[in-house]
Specification:
This protein is α+β, with helices and mostly antiparallel strands. It is built from 15 helices and 18 strands. Helices cover 36% and strands 23% of the residues. The protein is globular, with a radius of gyration of 25 Å.
């Protein structure tokens, strides 16, 4: 495509002299560039994930590459997901993260891989098809995550306890049972982990001994997934690097580069925060995947553009592992203010949360004391222990990037679903969504980039005055493959099995260390 396009341009521009022809021939090698054979990863060959380039090598590539196809800003789940998707399609992609991978919202989640039972309830009560679509997408992606990273994930049975008194319980018990069955139904046969089921009062106490006995009527058990969110994020980044992406941390974007005389974004000026060097990175397209910070990048391109993020704070606390049995979680389906609350086993401790309140955007959000106390108060209604502030071992706060579509008619509405926006020519913003759907978000983003690329190509082909500089900004899609990240295993997954901790114990590792290494690093332990 590239050589044909240049031929057409040079044929149309009859007044262009030999000097311009020589410049065009020089640019041809840049426009047609692709990673060398040593950097490309054929689909049918197992890649050597042990040979991931060092940060020094990645920085060198970032500084000296004449033009990337895509530059991704943001090293959270979504940004690394975009880099992995693009690299496995055969695109030349770079990623910059101003801090470290998973240092923000992506490491401050509830640790669940889930469709969202509360979103399903809202879909029915509000007749909201968008919420239903989000749940269906998330339930499909839940199964994919469990398959591509089995060492970092596991199915987690979760109890919904019943405490309502007669006659209210005649409505609530069938209501929650039907809700979990609907959750199973929308997962489909391919996405279902295990079917939900009803348990008696005695069975509920056997499965979750810390449940308050007084008033307990029984419960429903349904299944979701649990993950190590920060290790998952790092695993996605490493897998992207192994597939040829240039992935760098501690590199901050200082500003966007635009083509002279236009509003077309063609890269970014960045600063390596370790050695304090500033340099330019050029790319045909830039993807803004900075989560709650995406408006600051959008406003680098268009100063007066309205904000699309309505940040929400999600606070979690960590308490003793005695509150949850290993491998069983608890959900409080309706707190005093109508929210849901999870109590989940995590790394020998218990994670409880989350809150959902408006907040300011900051790089280091802190949990407010009133939110911590609210969690403790709500949990005390369901446990046979009155929880106090001294029970809290740790707490964190993450910022959800709830997004409002700037092109929607109802600009006051916010969405739990993701939004892919063409912010400016050459700049694509992806925001919103949830951890579980990161892969689908990445796929939609790269699809949007390629759609914009085809439109750019068409415009150049139809313009008899198009320049070589404009042609240089077009991705050659002749060798670009469709998305195939659905079943692409992450680093550490290929040789891992549930028996690995036993094998490591036989080699002399203590049980807890064997479990930790196996479930954090997989076959790289």
């Amino acid at each position: 495509m590239s050589s044909q396009l240049f031929s057409k341009l040079l044929t149309r521009r009859t007044l262009v002299g030999t000097a311009l022809f020589g410049a065009g021939a020089g640019l041809l090698s840049t426009f047609s560039w692709r990673p060398s054979q040593s950097e490309q990863v054929p689909d049918n060959v197992d890649i050597n994930l042990n040979r991931i380039p060092t940060r020094e090598h990645q920085i060198h590539r970032l500084r000296h590459e004449p033009m990337f196809d895509i530059l991704v800003i943001g090293g959270g789940a979504t940004g690394t997901g975009v880099a992995l998707d693009a690299a496995t399609r055969g695109l030349n992609v770079a990623l910059v993260e101003r801090s470290d991978f998973s240092s923000g919202t992506s490491s401050r989640s509830t640790k669940l891989i889930h469709g969202g039972v509360r979103y399903l309830e809202k879909a029915f009560t509000n007749l909201d098809y968008g919420q239903l679509n989000l749940v269906e997408d998330a339930l499909r992606e839940r199964k994919h995550l469990l398959n591509i990273s089995p060492h970092l994930t596991r199915p987690l049975p979760t109890i919904v306890p019943f405490y309502d008194t007669f006659p209210k319980c005649l409505f609530t018990i069938p209501y929650y049972w039907a809700g979990t069955k609907a959750y199973d139904f929308f997962a489909g046969s391919a996405g279902l982990l295990e079917p939900s089921y009803f348990i008696t009062r005695r069975e509920a106490r056997e499965k979750f001994p810390m449940l308050k006995e007084k008033g307990l009527k029984g419960g429903v058990v349904y299944y979701d997934g649990q993950q190590n969110d920060s290790r998952m994020n790092v695993g996605i980044a490493l897998t992207a690097a192994a597939h040829g992406a240039t992935v760098t941390n501690h590199v901050e974007v200082l500003g966007l580069i635009k083509r002279e005389g236009t509003n077309i974004v063609i890269g970014a000026r960045v600063k390596d925060r370790i050695n304090e060097e500033i340099f330019d990175v050029r790319a045909r397209y830039v993807v803004n995947a900075t989560g709650p910070f995406c408006d600051s990048i959008r406003q680098m391109a268009t100063r007066q553009i309205p904000n699309m993020i309505k940040p929400s704070s999600g606070v979690h606390i960590v308490v003793s592992g005695k509150y949850t049995p290993e491998g069983v979680g608890l959900i409080v389906p309706k707190t005093t203010d109508g929210r849901v609350l999870f109590l989940l086993p995590w790394e020998g401790s218990t994670v409880a949360g989350t809150t959902d309140s408006s907040t300011k955007i900051t790089s280091l959000p802190r949990p407010h004391e009133d939110e911590i106390m609210w969690i403790l108060k709500e949990l005390s209604h369901y446990l046979n222990h009155d929880m106090k502030r001294e029970d809290v071992d740790a707490a964190w706060s993450g910022i959800r990037p709830l997004a409002s579509d700037p092109n929607a008619k109802d600009t006051a509405s916010t969405s739990r679903d993701h939004i892919v926006e063409v912010t400016s020519p050459g700049l694509i913003t992806i925001t919103g969504g949830k951890w579980t759907t990161y892969r689908k978000m990445a796929e939609d983003t790269v699809d949007k980039v390629l759609k914009q690329n085809r439109e750019r190509l068409q415009a150049v082909q139809q313009n008899p005055l198009a320049t070589i500089e404009e042609a240089e900004l077009i991705i050659d899609e002749n060798n670009v493959k469709p998305c195939h990240t659905t079943n692409l295993q992450l680093i550490g997954a290929a040789g891992w099995s549930p028996q690995m901790p036993i094998t490591m114990s036989r080699l002399g590792f203590s049980t807890d260390i064997a479990e930790h290494l196996s479930h954090n690093y997989g076959d790289k332990a």
